[in-house]
């Protein structure tokens, strides 16, 4: 089979390797679709501490496929079953896992980081992932591509569940990439009255309108604070989501939030830029709720599959470029360029 291995920064090599062997308590998945995520791009450009120098790893944690082989000790996963796999595998025993929050497990493992991921034709699923419930059936109405890109949708659904968007809310989303598009779709479905999206790419801003954005602004060319206040009669946005990793925008988020507003620091900061200056008087006097969210739980993922399968949102529209695994380097170059939304390997 063919697999795309990450060897180091900027070094992806497509190799012919044997189909993985599985133990009696494991599964083998034939990959049908796997999408390149922002995390994959960060690893590609900067490496990852769980992939030490001198080792190699198959990246890819937004995956969908079919059960190709089932270990003799595994039941409930018939051959041919269509499945998707949430990436984070919790330990099952820590306080967070016991609450069902595998995304908060301090010792979690992950496909595409700790385990070989979906940028290959066949992927081994270890026993701990099966026991934890990370193999989830795909609804019949969904394509493999739609199931693969449900993972980023589930992360934005996790954000929505904390923000509790409601009809009448004005939502500001800073960042018009694939994650920003997922935020737009989820908040539109939740009944947001007005959705404003900011970015510094005119191309991305043009595309984001296809997913339900009501207003867009190039914040590299125009003053974002002035624009938001003008569009909200001087009040500010009820919800502000920073779907990017720019420290100054976390600072600005508090300034453009309305009194009693909710602010979600969705995008984490890169190493060395974690310390951000915030005007805490804005939090105090405007009674803001400021929160962070990271990843998604198995429940978030499962509910997101149901939402996408319902047809209420067109999650498949996120896929704007497709490549065979043999063209992995071309696919990564396309994704790094920022053109389109999601880049997907199809098998």
Automatic annotation (TrEMBL):
Its cofactor is Zn(2+). InterPro entries: ADH-like_C, ADH-like_N, ADH_Zn_CS, ER, GroES-like_sf, NAD(P)-bd_dom_sf, Zn_alcohol_dh. Keywords: Metal-binding, Oxidoreductase, Zinc. Residues 8-345 form the Enoyl reductase (ER) domain. CDD domains: iditol_2_DH_like. GO terms for molecular function: oxidoreductase activity; zinc ion binding. The keyword Repressor does not apply. PANTHER family: L-THREONINE 3-DEHYDROGENASE. Belongs to the zinc-containing alcohol dehydrogenase family. This is Threonine dehydrogenase. It comes from Eubacterium aggregans.
């Amino acid at each position: 089979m063919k697999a795309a291995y990450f060897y180091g920064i900027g070094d992806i090599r497509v190799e012919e390797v044997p189909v993985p062997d599985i133990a009696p308590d494991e599964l083998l998945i034939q990959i049908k679709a796997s999408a390149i995520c922002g995390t994959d791009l960060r690893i590609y450009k900067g490496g990852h501490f769980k992939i030490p120098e001198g080792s190699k790893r198959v990246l890819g944690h937004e995956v969908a496929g079919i059960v190709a082989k089932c270990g003799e000790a595994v039941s409930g996963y018939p051959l041919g079953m269509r499945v998707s796999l949430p990436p984070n595998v919790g330990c099952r025993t820590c306080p967070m896992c016991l609450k069902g929050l595998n995304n908060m497990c301090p010792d979690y493992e992950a496909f595409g980081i700790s385990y070989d991921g979906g940028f290959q034709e066949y992927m081994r699923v270890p026993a701990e992932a099966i026991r934890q419930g990370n193999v989830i059936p795909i609804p019949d109405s969904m394509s493999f591509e739609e199931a693969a890109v449900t993972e980023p949708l589930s992360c934005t659904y996790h954000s929505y569940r904390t923000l509790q968007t409601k009809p009448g809310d004005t939502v500001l989303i800073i960042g018009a990439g694939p994650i920003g598009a997922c935020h737009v779709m989820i908040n539109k479905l939740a009944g947001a009255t007005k959705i404003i999206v900011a970015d510094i790419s005119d191309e991305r801003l043009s595309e984001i309108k296809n997913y339900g954005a009501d207003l867009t602004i190039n914040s590299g060319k125009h003053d974002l604070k002035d624009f938001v206040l003008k569009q909200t009669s001087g009040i500010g946005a009820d919800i502000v989501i920073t779907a990017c990793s720019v420290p100054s925008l976390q600072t600005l988020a508090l300034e453009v939030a309305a009194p009693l507003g909710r602010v979600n620091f969705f995008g984490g900061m890169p190493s060395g830029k974690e310390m951000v200056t915030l005007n805490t008087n804005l939090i105090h006097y405007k009674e803001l709720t400021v929160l962070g969210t990271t990843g998604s739980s198995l429940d978030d993922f499962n509910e997101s599959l149901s939402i996408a399968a319902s047809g209420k949102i067109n999650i498949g529209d996120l896929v704007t470029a497709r490549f065979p695994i043999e063209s992995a380097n071309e696919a990564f170059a396309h994704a790094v360029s920022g053109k389109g939304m999601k880049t997907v390997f199809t098998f």
